[in-house]
């Protein structure tokens, strides 16, 4: 079925009922007409063009009165159009499309095009591989450099596709590791023009501003990402390449020690993020309060002009973070650079944004669990004990500091204001990723896991089959936006993490439902960046690397 979403925000069914051939156009694809309430819908030029008007069509076209987007659900294909349709309720179809083309017929019945998505996943990873860098970009247009947690997810996919590339991904990323152990969230490709991505290397100035802590041979950002690299290294080792554990141990140990030493200022185990990009969920609604309270408009008066690249490459601005968000993200970047990216100075008052986040902390805890496993395989008994102690310490802190007993979900703690903030966001489900029990919270953890499982099964998180699980924000939250980045859409990486965590907790049925969602969304649409949970429509970049890698890991082995 098709959905028309005009700019007004009204969603109206269009073309979900009998379609009638009006005429043939040149080239051959037919034009179709159907009345939807007071609107009339015309498809001309096959599946590539669709126009809607409020009056009787003239020839193959209708008069345009507003701009909108047509959504094909569940085939999940977005088409540009002009027109206006009004909400209406029509009876069930009496007849089908007359003599549709095979491709059009497949769209109408909601089945994917007959192609091998596993082969497509391999093709995407091949296209996005940069031989000169020995690594893979997230996508060839919008993201032309190497991203940290993307690299880890890509390496997981490559572990069963191309083990040489899987290792190379991580080796090249860790060439950008800072002397304090931090792995930056971007390692910039010197062969890519700096204006191709914002903010580019000249905004971060890591090699100059960090006073020798950042590497001089490569430019990087000045913030980090969740340490999912430990999972990637274990996945590579599990293919028989156990020597990679020894090779990567000092690099991973430096990274996880950095979090415990430099991002755990209270000594209780909780790790803080100092930029909204660090946990990977850039414009999460959980950031709204801290960002707008901590950085009022007055502080932005002297912000230098900048030009975003993320909304000029065929990406609808409605899918992306707002200008107000970007202003604050850039402000934090510049303040961090001004302080030389010094962790001590930044924590002691140099930044308006410092958050203890349940998603980031859960992935740090998973990193501790993985490091204990790697140490065990390497016979490093003291390190096994150290990482298990750190994991238990952090597990207790998450239970005691981030659990919201009223909402039944984990939240975030604003270290600047002291406020605890909660929303039904995938962030709050992240403690399902790990299984470590803290010494002080054994009795409460079981109940908390049960409440999280109940949320995963709930209707707002698409647990009752009427939308695609698992939206990053529950559909009944006021800030829910089904198409806007981390404020509602389904992302394949969070689904992959959640399915893995659910399996570890013995929730095999829920885990399979999440994996089925990965399979369905990708097989109907292809390797897109993220997906509308209500309609299944894809958004963001097509040919996205971690979608390809994790789909392959989930569904093609």
Automatic annotation (TrEMBL):
A GO biological process held by the record: oligosaccharide metabolic process
Q: Name one GO cellular component term.
A: endoplasmic reticulum membrane
Residue limits of the Mannosylglycerate hydrolase MGH1-like glycoside hydrolase domain? 143-547
A single Gene Ontology MF term assigned here is: Glc3Man9GlcNAc2 oligosaccharide glucosidase activity
Q: Supply the alphabetized keyword list.
A: Glycosidase, Hydrolase
The answer to keyword Hydrolase applying to this record is yes
> Family assignment?
Belongs to the glycosyl hydrolase 63 family.
Protein name (record): Mannosylglycerate hydrolase MGH1-like glycoside hydrolase domain-containing protein
Species whose genome carries this gene:
Alexandrium monilatum
Q: What is the lineage of its organism?
A: Eukaryota, Sar, Alveolata, Dinophyceae, Gonyaulacales
